[in-house]
Amino acid sequence: MQKCPSCACPYGYAVSDDLYNCPECGFEWNPNESKEIEHQQENIVKDANGNPLQDGDDVVIVKDLPVKGAPKPIKAGTKVKNIRIVEGDHNIDCKITGFGSMALKSEFVKKA
Hints:
Elements: E1 13-16, E2 19-21, E3 28-29, H1 31-42, E4 45-46, E5 52-53, E6 59-61, E7 79-80, E8 84-85, E9 92-96, E10 100-104, E11 109-111
Antiparallel strand pairs: 1-2, 2-3, 4-5, 6-7, 6-11, 8-9, 9-10
């Protein structure tokens, strides 16, 4: 059994020597090719509009974001310079003037 690269189902089964199928979503894949595709897809981080983000990009926050322990939220329209892409749920590390170092979700920013 192999894990499905599409839905992460652990019950993928062999259809032929080089082809596997997922019983949950019906996805078919070649395990030799899917590792390369999976590695390329996991490193892509997209903004709220679907544009790919990279280290060093400038972004603008699209929604007021409350900050734990801070008296006021980060306002929509705040520009953030020189972001860094990281792994995890909050996939952007940056420094915001007046707030310091922050971790943001890419769904709340757009490319400047």
